Structure formats: C-alpha cells, structure tokens
C-alpha cells in the first residue's frame, strides 16, 4: 500500500518526479525547456512551496503564477492539449507514488488550478477588448 502525501518530503518526491516527467515530455517539455527556459534549481524549491501550500495547507509560497503564465502565453500560446498533458502527468505521478485523501485532493486541486489558469489566460484579451469596446 502506498502512503498519502503528508510531509514536505512527500511533496518534494511528487514535485521532483513530476517535473522530471515534464522535462522529458514531447508535448510540454519544450515549453518548459526551450520557451520558458526554466532554471530548475530555482524553480523546483518554489514548486515545493507552492504544492506544500496547496496540498498540506502550509503557508510559504510567495509568487504570482498567473502573471508568469500570462507572459509565457504571449511567447507561446498555451492550448487545451498542453494543460491536459500537464494534468495527465501530474495525476500519473501522484498515482505512481501516493494514495489517500491528500493525494486525491491534490489531483482535484491541481485540475481546478490548471482549468482556471487556462480560462484566465484565454479570456484575458477578451475581457480587455470588452472593456475597451463595450456593446451599445
């Protein structure tokens, strides 16, 4: 039986394994490696904090992931298939290492975050255009 996600160390196992898959993935790996040019030594500790906050409720993450993804989307338009692949890899990584309430909730929260991020990214310009050009 696998254990649940309960500690910072568990979060680090999840994040390291997940982003290892991401870096090697044919669809989204190039976005991280070639477009965003992620500095993994800098990025991974931020992701430990982010997912520790999301999964375990520990306060520690500081940052603005939406702005980062807005900027990335301007350089490389992010499509549903990219978010779907991210979620698929994330879910597979959790299932590979963990099971339990926190693991299940982590998948739900990650899906909600990814879906909201996709929605905001793809409606950012629409919202701006509506404000500039209201219907009469």
Commentary on this structure:
This protein has 136 residues and is mainly α. The chain has a single domain (8-132), classed as Globin-like. The chain has 6 helices and no strands. The protein has helices spanning 8-24, 29-35, 40-56, 65-75, 80-97, 101-132. It is globular, with a radius of gyration of 16 Å. Residues 127-136 have low confidence and may be disordered.
Provide the descriptors you would attach to this structure in a database record.
6 helices, 136 residues, mainly alpha, Globin-like, disordered C terminus
Strand residues, percent = under 5%
Identify the CATH homologous superfamily: Globins
Largest sheet: none
Shape: globular
Q: What is the CATH T-level topology?
A: Globin-like
Structural classification? mainly alpha
* Proper CATH architecture: Orthogonal Bundle
Please give the count of helices.
6
Q: Portion of residues in helices?
A: over 70%
Number of domains: 1
Compute the average pLDDT.
Answer: 90
Task: Write down the CATH class.
Answer: Mainly Alpha
Radius of gyration: 16 Å
Question: What's the end-to-end separation, in Å?
Answer: 62 Å
* Secondary-structure element series: HHHHHH
What does this entry show, briefly?
With 136 residues, this protein is an all-alpha fold. The protein has helices spanning 8-24, 29-35, 40-56, 65-75, 80-97, 101-132.
Topology:
Blueprint (H helix, E strand, L loop, with lengths): L7 H17 L4 H7 L4 H17 L8 H11 L4 H18 L3 H32 L4
């Amino acid at each position: 039986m696998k254990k649940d996600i309960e500690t910072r160390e568990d979060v680090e196992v999840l994040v390291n394994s997940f982003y290892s898959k991401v870096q090697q993935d044919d669809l989204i790996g190039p976005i991280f490696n070639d477009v965003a040019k992620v500095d993994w030594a800098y990025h991974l500790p931020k992701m430990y904090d982010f997912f520790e906050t999301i999964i375990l409720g520990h306060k520690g993450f500081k940052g603005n992931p939406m702005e980062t993804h807005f900027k990335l989307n301007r350089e490389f338009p992010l499509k549903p298939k990219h978010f779907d692949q991210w979620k698929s890899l994330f879910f597979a990584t959790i299932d590979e290492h963990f099971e339990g309430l926190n693991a299940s909730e982590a998948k739900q929260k990650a899906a909600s975050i990814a879906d909201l991020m996709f929605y905001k990214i793809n409606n950012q310009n629409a919202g701006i255009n509506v404000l500039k050009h209201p219907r009469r």
